[in-house]
Design brief:
Layout (H helix, E strand, L loop, with lengths): L3 H11 L14 H19 L11 E6 L16 E4 L4 E9 L8 E4 L2 E4 L5 E7 L9 H19 L3 H25 L9 H5 L3
Antiparallel strand pairs: 1-6, 2-5, 3-6, 4-5
Helix pairs in contact: 1-3, 2-3, 3-4
């Protein structure tokens, strides 16, 4: 079963370290270095960059009510409602409702989703999850490569292996993007009111 030590040891293997760990709180330089980086690197790997895949093992559906508008926290001009990120969410994956959001009538700012439509926000989010047993096998490889890249300088000092880890991380992202394209087909855009009115 995939657990913390198996993923940490995979990262050590990728960076070319001879050390291995048997526990998260093991008193060794390698164990401490990996433990210190673990949470931040995991969250970064889940959230990803602009073209990062949607890791299905971290996806959850959530319906979020609009927050209250107060003088101390007004709504930015031009927007109808603001929806805070659910607790533990790291990234917005897809807005299901309102359908107008598919037309680009939304903005993400200050950890909130701003919409030009009101009503509950129904969306898929990527949530943090520190249980490796529930992770996708490809995410395990991707995260281990990124963790190895982050910690290689401190543990091995081998810049060549560090760059190898980065190259492997990028290759895994590309492979995951192909899987994502199959498992999460693109959402068809919804025509705006002006276009739809012409056919009524």
């Amino acid at each position: 079963m995939t657990d913390y030590t198996s993923v940490a040891n995979l990262a050590l293997q990728k960076m070319g370290a001879a050390d291995r760990i048997v526990a998260r709180d093991q008193d060794s330089h390698a164990a401490r270095t990996l433990a210190e980086a673990w949470d931040d690197v995991r969250k970064a790997a889940i959230r990803g960059g602009k073209k990062a895949p949607r890791w299905n093992c971290f996806e959850r559906y959530s319906e979020t009510p609009a927050r209250a508008i107060t003088p101390f926290k007004p709504l930015p001009y031009g927007w109808a409602a603001a929806y805070p990120m659910p607790d533990g969410a790291l990234r917005l994956a897809e807005i299901v409702y309102p359908t107008g959001a598919a037309e680009g009538r939304w903005k993400f700012a200050d950890n909130e989703v701003l919409l030009k439509d009101s009503g509950p926000l129904k969306a898929w989010w990527l949530f943090d999850n520190d249980e490796p047993a529930t992770w996708d096998a490809l995410f395990v490889e991707t995260f281990a490569a990124l963790l190895a890249y982050q910690c290689a300088d401190s543990i091995t000092g081998d810049r060549g292996r560090k760059q190898d880890c980065w190259a492997e991380y990028q290759a895994n992202l590309a492979a995951a993007a192909k899987v994502d394209a199959t498992e999460n087909p693109p959402v068809e855009p919804v025509e705006d009111d002006w276009v739809m009115a012409r056919f009524r």
